[in-house]
């Protein structure tokens, strides 16, 4: 028996020796020719092996091939579909008998792979052979037996210094990856699978890592805990949570995203944005849930262009553009970031300045709203502050709807310069010329800071109630103002017109009929009420019902404001009242002295319309009676060109003859009235 065992052992050793030694005695050309013929039969492509071929069968099935080249489809742009300097592969034989796959090594050195899709949708990896159905059947058979593999282990699996390209003639897309390096590690299906590597795309180095805790669950279509990171100078992200790969991709976990510049990222991705400011740093932190083409962020913390938000956001990529939906609370929204297209914020008009020789005026910086076409959105926002040019809006709540470049904002609550109200704003970037529409209604607003920030005008103070609806088009702020149209009304209470004292002007009415009054300094006209309605056509504001009620002064007026040139042309009719009666809106008794207000709105000129005043002699007579009593009669007679008569009961002047008097002109009478 011992002799028989020895004989059998010798036979086994001899067989193993034959398996190991036979490949050494078979010429390499035999391997090459057999492999080339097999590839030709299965793919219809030519395989060229320009280097050595090494083959071993025990204790592992191993192959090493150098300078390999697989020809491309006849219609493809590149001659080769795949080429590499070296391919090494080895699989252990004995584990196969236990239903285990243990790949000892699989290494590609300097591989170059070209993938391409032609216009009719045919990919170059689709092989046109008579037996093309056989691999599909074999694949199906392989799938059915996949469950019999009890274990998979990976040893050295890597790609070193690879190059890969992809072209699609259907949509014109093209990708090119260089310096591709990849390392995989899988001790077993029940041990963590790890992958790491990097590549260069569009001149940008990228690196990534991936870890799956339960690879067996992943291969069976179940979820497994994973960790993923992707880093570059343009975008970096990390994810830690669960992941399911088959049937439909699903994931739930925590994500961190950091983009130093959204504008630079868009440029790198091949979709450059219009030149300008904004679309800078973006960071996102939160819990992400994804399935198919829908993603949501819960407990999100988002920082974008210096604005910080918290809330939830959902993203769908199923449509032509990404669709955003959500509810966010933002510390501030700075719209100025997106209005200028020269990379700088839109210049602010200096306080109190205007055109007409001043250094302010409307900006000519281009406004480009085409960036609104990047996404669609339906978002409810609350913000602590909203900045639009120099206008500062306080705590507000709004709904934002963006569709194909048209942004509609419904401001349901606005805190505006001590007041409150609501309004709507529309920015239309669908066409080549931006369109803007706005409608607001606010009350209790502090007029001076609002007018200062909106138009650089500081001559009016008080609490205001404003209602207006306007629209305009243009490629710059100046063009929009020039096309502005709409209507509205404004009412001010308990305020003052700074730089002019109308009561004092009435008392100096005759001293400067041609040169105008001196204004400015600390002078002001207080009022209890002032307001009127207006219309705007092509940037020209027209008002016909201006009314001002003030102690001793009542003012009515009408005129125009040239918004593009920031000038005013008004005729106001101040009435110097004899008493305080009428301030509440009743009829006032007094002398009416029309005033012309004209010139730049930052520094207007005031001059009396003396000729018009003298035409209204009846009202002048009544006022003089009220102001001067009996003494006013003589003044009145002189004003009208008559002789002065003594008052009732007075003795006539004694003397030789009545003194000859010089007739008093109306101008002299009014001068006398005002102490001149």
Q: Would you count the extended β strands for me?
A: 34
Q: Characterize the largest beta sheet: strand count, sense, and whether it forms a barrel.
A: 31 strands, mixed
Radius of gyration, Cα only, in angstroms? Answer: 44 Å
Residue-averaged pLDDT: 79
Query: Approximately how much beta-strand content do the residues carry?
Result: over 45%
Q: Report the helical percentage.
A: 10-25%
Q: What structural class results from the helix and strand content?
A: alpha+beta
Q: How widely separated are the two ends?
A: 152 Å
Number of helices: 12
Low-confidence stretches: 4-22, 131-147, 341-359, 510-517, 627-659, 663-676
Q: Rough shape?
A: elongated
Oligomer: single chain
Structure commentary:
- The strands form two sheets. The protein has a 31-stranded mixed β-sheet that branches. The protein has a three-stranded mixed β-sheet with strand order 18-20-21.
- Strand 14 and strand 15 form a beta hairpin.
- The longest helix has 24 residues.
- The chain is elongated.
- Helix content is 18%, strand content 45%.
- The protein has 676 residues and is α+β, with helices and mostly antiparallel strands.
- Helix 10 packs antiparallel against helix 11 and helix 11 runs antiparallel to helix 12.
- Among the domains are: 146 residues, no CATH class; 144 residues, no CATH class; 102 residues; 39 residues, no CATH class.
Main traits of this protein?
single chain; alpha+beta; 31-stranded mixed β-sheet; 3-stranded mixed β-sheet; 18% helix; disordered C terminus
């Amino acid at each position: 028996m011992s002799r028989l065992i020895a004989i059998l052992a010798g036979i086994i050793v001899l067989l193993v020796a034959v398996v190991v030694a036979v490949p050494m005695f078979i010429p390499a050309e035999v391997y090459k020719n057999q492999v080339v013929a097999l590839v030709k039969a299965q793919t219809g492509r030519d395989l060229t092996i320009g280097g050595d071929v090494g083959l071993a069968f025990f204790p592992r099935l191993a192959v090493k091939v150098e300078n390999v080249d697989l020809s491309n489809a006849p219609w493809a742009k590149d001659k080769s579909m795949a080429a590499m300097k070296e391919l090494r592969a080895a699989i252990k034989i004995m584990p196969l008998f236990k239903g285990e796959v243990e790949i000892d090594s699989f290494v590609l050195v300097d591989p170059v792979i070209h993938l391409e899709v032609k216009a009719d949708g045919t990919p170059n990896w689709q092989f046109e052979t008579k037996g093309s159905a056989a691999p599909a059947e074999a694949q199906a058979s392989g799938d059915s037996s996949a469950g019999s593999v009890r274990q998979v282990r990976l040893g050295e699996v890597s790609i070193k210094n690879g190059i890969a390209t992809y072209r699609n003639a259907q949509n014109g897309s093209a990708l090119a990856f260089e310096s591709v390096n990849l390392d995989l590690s899988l001790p077993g299906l029940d041990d963590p699978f790890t992958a790491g590597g990097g590549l260069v795309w569009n001149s940008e180095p990228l690196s990534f890592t991936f870890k799956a805790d339960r690879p067996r669950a992943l291969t069976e279509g179940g979820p497994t805990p994973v960790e993923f990171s992707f880093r570059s100078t343009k975008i970096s992200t990390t994810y830690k949570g669960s992941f399911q790969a088959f049937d439909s991709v699903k994931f739930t976990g925590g994500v961190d995203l950091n983009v130093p510049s959204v504008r630079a990222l868009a440029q790198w991705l091949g979709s450059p944005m219009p030149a300008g400011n904004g679309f800078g740093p973006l960071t996102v932190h939160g819990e992400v849930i994804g399935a198919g083409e829908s993603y949501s962020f819960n407990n999100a913390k988002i920082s974008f262009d210096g604005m910080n938000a918290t809330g939830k956001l959902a993203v769908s990529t199923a449509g032509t553009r990404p669709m955003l939906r959500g509810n966010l609370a933002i510390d501030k929204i700075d719209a100025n970031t997106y209005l200028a297209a020269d990379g700088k914020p839109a210049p602010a008009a200096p306080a109190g300045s205007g055109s007409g020789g001043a250094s302010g005026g409307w900006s000519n910086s281009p406004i480009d709203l085409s960036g609104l076409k990047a996404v669609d959105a339906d978002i409810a926002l609350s913000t602590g502050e909203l900045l639009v040019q120099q206008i500062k809006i306080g705590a507000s709540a709004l709904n934002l709807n963006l569709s194909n470049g048209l942004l509609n904002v419904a401001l349901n609550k606005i805190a505006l310069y001590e007041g409150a109200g609501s309004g709507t704003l529309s920015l239309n970037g669908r066409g080549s010329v931006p369109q803007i529409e706005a409608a607001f209604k606010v009350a209790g607003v502090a007029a001076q800071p609002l007018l200062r920030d909106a138009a650089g005008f500081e001559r009016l103070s008080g609490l205001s109630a404003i209602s207006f609806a306007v629209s305009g088009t243009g490629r710059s702020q100046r063009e929009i103002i020039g096309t502005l149209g709409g209507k509205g009304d404004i009412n001010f209470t308990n305020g003052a017109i700074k730089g002019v004292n109308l009561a004092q002007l009435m008392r100096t009415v005759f001293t400067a009929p041609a040169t105008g009054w001196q204004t400015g300094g600390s002078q002001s006209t207080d009022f209890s009420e002032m307001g009127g309605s207006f219309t705007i056509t092509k940037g020209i504001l027209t008002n016909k019902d201006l009314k001002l009620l003030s102690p001793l002064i009542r003012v009515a007026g009408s005129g125009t404001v040239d918004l593009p040139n920031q000038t005013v042309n008004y005729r106001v009719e101040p009435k110097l009242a004899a008493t305080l009666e009428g301030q509440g809106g009743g009829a006032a008794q007094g002398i009416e002295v029309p005033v012309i207000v004209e010139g730049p709105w930052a520094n207007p000129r005031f001059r009396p319309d003396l000729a018009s005043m003298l035409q209204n002699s009846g009202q002048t007579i009544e006022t003089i009676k009220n102001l001067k009593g009996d003494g006013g009669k003589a003044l009145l007679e002189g004003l009208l060109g008559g002789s002065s008569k003594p008052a009732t009961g007075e003795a006539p002047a004694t003397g030789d003859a009545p003194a000859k008097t010089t007739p008093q002109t109306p101008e002299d009478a009014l001068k006398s009235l005002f102490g001149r």
